[in-house]
């Protein structure tokens, strides 16, 4: 296996990961990330120069794909954090409301 084939496989797996993140298929991510890591490990064993790797890296736009993937994963992570925070607020509000039902706090003054 040569360096260019590894870069092509790396690119295709990265594109698949990006698609999975877009449609929120998180179950597949672990397996695809492992495949990508295997390709990186195999690339270490291939004899190549730094210039060859750099030229193929930019030729197949791996740098742009990695940035896109990173930004999409960051956006999804932040969205999930926001959902978790909103859910925590709802839990606190519901718990507080349930605690108030046992006590007559509102309108306890007689007229």
Shape: elongated
Low-confidence stretches: none
Strand segment count: 0
Count of DSSP-assigned helices: 4
The average pLDDT value, as a whole number, equals 86
Portion in beta strands: under 5%
Number of domains: 1
- Using only CA atoms, what is the Rg? 25 Å
Q: Which structural class matches the secondary elements?
A: mainly alpha
What percent of residues adopt helix (DSSP H or I)? over 70%
Largest sheet: none
Order of helices and strands: HHHH
| Terminal residue distance | 89 Å
Characterize this entry briefly.
It is built from four helices and no strands. The chain is mostly helical and 111 residues long.
What does this structure look like?
The protein has 111 residues and is mostly helical. The chain has one domain (3-100). It has helices at residues 3-22, 29-45, 50-59, 62-101. Helix 1 (3-22) runs antiparallel to helix 2 and helix 1 (3-22) runs parallel beside helix 4 (62-101). The longest helix has 40 residues, at 62-101. The chain is elongated, with a radius of gyration of 25 Å. The relative contact order is 0.11.
